[in-house]
Specification:
It is a single chain. This protein is α/β, with parallel strands linked by helices and 142 residues long. The protein folds into two domains: 56 residues, Signal recognition particle alu RNA binding heterodimer, srp9/1; 61 residues, 2,3-Dihydroxybiphenyl 1,2-Dioxygenase, domain 1, CATH 3.10.180. It contains three helices and eight strands. It has a four-stranded mixed sheet, covered by helices on one side. The chain has a four-stranded mixed sheet with strand order 5-8-7-6, covered by helices on one side. The longest helix is centred in the first third of the chain and has 11 residues. The relative contact order is 0.17.
């Protein structure tokens, strides 16, 4: 007999938690220094910048509010650039953030201003990696 999907997952949760959060997301880039400077200019703090051996450099940056960090890692066959990262960056001012990114010469999408969703837009970094920006606002349905 196959247990119902919900009962199997429920049993896993009561037996112990397997994962407790997301700590770091890797972003493949062709120039770690250039991307590090970009994120620092956007308010991120470098938590770690070290050679981990074998020429593998780990650059880990955290947003001002903490939480999940972004590690800019060197691109490789297994880690191509030019991807849709799925990364959503939060900001208290989507319009201002968009203006900042345009001023930095990045490719920035239109600001989506829908009554039922938070203000949001996309941008691509120097390597064509797409990131999303959202202005959380509970009064607009986010």
């Amino acid at each position: 007999m196959i247990p119902a999907a919900g009962s199997r997952l429920h049993g896993m949760a009561t037996a112990g938690t397997t994962f407790t959060g997301i700590t770091t997301i890797a972003l493949p880039v062709s120039d770690q220094d250039r991307t590090k400077r970009l994120f620092e200019e956007l308010g991120f703090t470098t938590e770690l910048d070290a050679d981990l051996g074998g020429g593998f450099r780990w650059v880990q940056l955290t947003a001002p509010d903490g939480g999940t960090s972004i590690s800019v890692v060197a691109t490789a066959d297994e880690l191509p650039t030019g991807i849709d990262t799925g990364i959503r960056l939060a900001t208290p001012d989507a319009r201002g953030a968009r203006d900042t990114l345009v001023g930095l010469g990045l490719s920035v999408g239109e600001l989506l201003d829908w009554p039922t969703a938070p203000l949001m837009f996309t941008f691509t970094d120097f390597d064509g990696n797409r990131l999303y920006v959202v202005e959380p606002d509970t009064t607009r349905g986010s």
